[in-house]
What does this fold into?
Amino acid sequence: MVWVNALVQGILLGGLYALFACGLSLLFGVMRVVNLAHGDFAVLAAYVALAIIAGLQLPVLWTALVVAPLFALVGYLVQRFIVQRSLAVSPLTTLLVTFGLSIVIQNALLQLLSANSQSLPSGVLASGSLEVNGQLSIGYLSVIVFVVAVVVIVALQMFLSHTALGRQVRAASDDQEVANTVGVNVRHVFGIAAAIAFATVALAGVAFGMYSSFDPAAGPQRLIFAFEAVVIGGLGSLWGTLVGGIVLGLAQVLGAQVDAGFGVLAGHLVFLAVLALRPGGLIPARFS
Amino acid sequence: MVAVAVLASLPYVVYANVTELLVNLFVLVTLATMWNLLAGYAGLVSIGQQAYIGVGAYIVLVLARNGMSPFVAIPFALLGSALVALPTSFLVLRLRGAYFAIATWVVAEAFQLIVSRIPSVGGGAGASLRGMNGLDPAVREAFTYWAALAVVVAALLGSYLLLRSRLGLDLTAIRDNEIGARSVGVRITLAKRIVYLLSAAGCGAAGALLIVSQLNVQATSVFSVQWSAYMIFVALIGGLGTIEGPIVGTLIFYTLQQTLADRGAWYLIILGTVAVLMAMFVPRGLWGLVSDRFDFRLFPVGYWLHWRRPTTPSPPLP
It folds into this structure.
């Protein structure tokens, strides 16, 4: 029963990682860009949510409605003014620039706030759970996060395959020049993709802030988990990202079941094993 | 040569706090040079060179516990790091771009988690270096300084000779156009592997210097990604793909760090912002600006050499 519990918790934790990773997956799939400040933007979103709760006395779930559009705007601007510019220098420059951004965000948060860890007050959501029996209990929060992750991924997939804008995104991703000649404003479309990705990052940041405590230096770890989920699942496939998140969540929870300190390492080892054996990921595919 | 001789005689002339500062400078120049070797010449952006800083430091720790002088252990740290990098290279060198960057980072995280689980080297709490008690502090500091000077001179001279060699040409060819390089017969994986191992060796030596100068080691700090931030900022500000760049970058780094010493993390915020702007607008860094303007190089290996003088007939290919 202990193992069944670990299995369920692992899958649910995977939902959180998938929510975290889908923005990364989208940007890589569309632009071949990895935003190394991904995790730090999520932490920033959690801090913004904290400020909103303190300032407007909103309940925590409502903050997502403010934080997600705000970060969509941030994402559009970051894409247009920073990422697009560095892409023009070279693809490697985007790595260096977003890494620099990550360090700047971390240290700015550290300097302006403090190194103290915070968490989002989530009341009954955090503590409440569905007791199946003595050893198996399912937290409401983790179920909500899992459902949100699936909904976001389905919505993204629908957006990409069934809307005009989604088609433009895919066209720009496949061939920028041709997309341009048929009237797609590639830069704007990439900006839109980044806006969507950042909105999901904000959701993930709020979810993570409710799940566990965070501090200014928490971003890189989140980025690594998100990237691991993307790679394990298979790059450029949103469903793969969900699978990758679940595999990573399972590896961590089952690893921690073996030995309390082994969880994160187990996740890393699974990631490295996938890189070594199946570099394309478990479900390699392109957006279709 | 003169500069090295002057620097070597410093412990006789100046106070220990100056040599201590210089040791830190040398470590940072070495690290940035090693990172620059990968990114600036081979086009491999690593965020995980701290893996070998940690390996180097822990090798010195273990050898010193078994009775070896920590100074004698430094070359072993260098070799040991390269040895550890060999199997790792088979995993990470299959990857490119962001994949390579994050895979190296995860490797460093995994090393840290593994070392933290070994109780005999202090686990997560860290350990202090033994084997220095018999030495007079002044002698110890002088030896540390000379060791650091030797490492940084070896790193700079080694990179210079490496880049002047055929391998250096291979590497720049790979960075500029990997498929093109392959098609003219460059053995891409071999060239990348050699430079990856050399970079690991240099970082290992730097890690050894860190533990020798600080006399203790802690896994979370020695394997910290902060080191990558330092290396990247220094190399970007000084000049990517130039040997002089890391020296210039390190001087700026330390000036800023010392000036803003009582203002917490502001120096990192400023350095990071400057590095980001440099990467976007001045991709060849400060030294690139200087050398373009005055056509002056301390170490003439720049890949601009032939490009700037298109009239010079290129030598026949061997």
